[in-house]
């Protein structure tokens, strides 16, 4: 249902699953295991996997914190998009990477739910993409000391509201790792 003409393909996005981002996050190992299963499924189905890696003063390029976790690894030819803002599209080549692969739907995984995941979900939708959030393949840290909800509630809230996300000619949806269908457009 995407509004992007001649872009029938789906891509899996793995956002900010870096040592310094996911250390201490809610269900870290379970989420990374689910992302790994999705990466394997995408590769087996010839679905593009696009990796996104954050870099800023707190995550210096080349540092151990900046590196993608050891449990995951971009494959040969899989793009790794470097970003400096929460929205993975902002001031990056992500749009060019996706358009070059005919992608009109993105399947989103990674961290942090309350910042880069949400910003990218909305960024993709307003740019014309259908956007699927994988309910058990995104995570966040505990920010309750700053008044935020607990990580499990933050994740649940994102899963709840994204299932009704929509804009003219496009929409969001939420499925679990076991339910994902890379060949099926949102609708």
Which shape, going by the Cα principal axes? globular
Contiguous runs where pLDDT drops below 50 for at least 5 residues: none
Number of helices: 5
> What Rg do the Cα atoms give?
15 Å
How many E strands? 7
What portion of residues belong to β-strands? 15-25%
Strand order of the largest sheet: 3-2-1-4-5-7-6
Arithmetic mean of pLDDT: 96
Give the oligomeric state: single chain
One letter per element, helices H and strands E, the order comes to EHHEEHEHEHEE
Largest β-sheet summary = 7 strands, mixed
Structural class: alpha/beta
- Report the helical percentage: 25-40%
Secondary-structure topology with pairs:
Elements: E1 9-15, H1 19-22, H2 28-44, E2 49-54, E3 80-83, H3 94-99, E4 103-111, H4 113-126, E5 130-139, H5 151-162, E6 166-167, E7 170-175
Parallel strand pairs: 1-2, 1-4, 2-3, 4-5, 5-7
Antiparallel strand pairs: 6-7
How does this structure look, described?
The chain is of the alpha/beta class. Helix content is 28%, strand content 24%. The protein has five helices and seven strands; from the N terminus they run βααββαβαβαββ. The chain has helices at 19-22, 28-44, 94-99, 113-126, 151-162, and strands at 9-15, 49-54, 80-83, 103-111, 130-139, 166-167, 170-175. It has a seven-stranded mixed β-sheet. The longest helix has 17 residues, at 28-44. The mean pLDDT is 96.
């Amino acid at each position: 249902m995407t509004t992007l003409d001649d872009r029938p393909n789906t891509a899996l996005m793995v956002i900010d699953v870096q040592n310094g981002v996911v250390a201490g996050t809610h269900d870290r190992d379970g989420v990374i295991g689910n992302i790994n299963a999705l990466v394997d499924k995408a590769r087996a189905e010839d679905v593009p996997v696009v990796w996104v890696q954050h870099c800023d003063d707190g995550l210096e390029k080349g540092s151990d914190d900046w590196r993608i976790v050891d449990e995951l690894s971009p494959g040969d030819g899989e793009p790794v998009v470097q970003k400096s803002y929460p929205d993975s599209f902002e001031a990056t080549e992500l749009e060019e990477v996706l358009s070059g692969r005919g992608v009109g739907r993105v399947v989103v995984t990674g961290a942090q739910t309350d910042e880069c995941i949400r910003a990218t979900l909305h960024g993709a939708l307003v740019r014309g993409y259908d956007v699927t959030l994988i309910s058990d393949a995104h995570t966040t840290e505990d920010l309750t000391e700053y008044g935020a909800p607990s990580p499990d509630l933050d994740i649940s809230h994102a899963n709840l509201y994204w299932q009704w996300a929509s804009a003219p000619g496009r929409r969001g949806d939420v499925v679990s790792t076991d339910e994902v269908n890379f060949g099926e457009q949102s609708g």
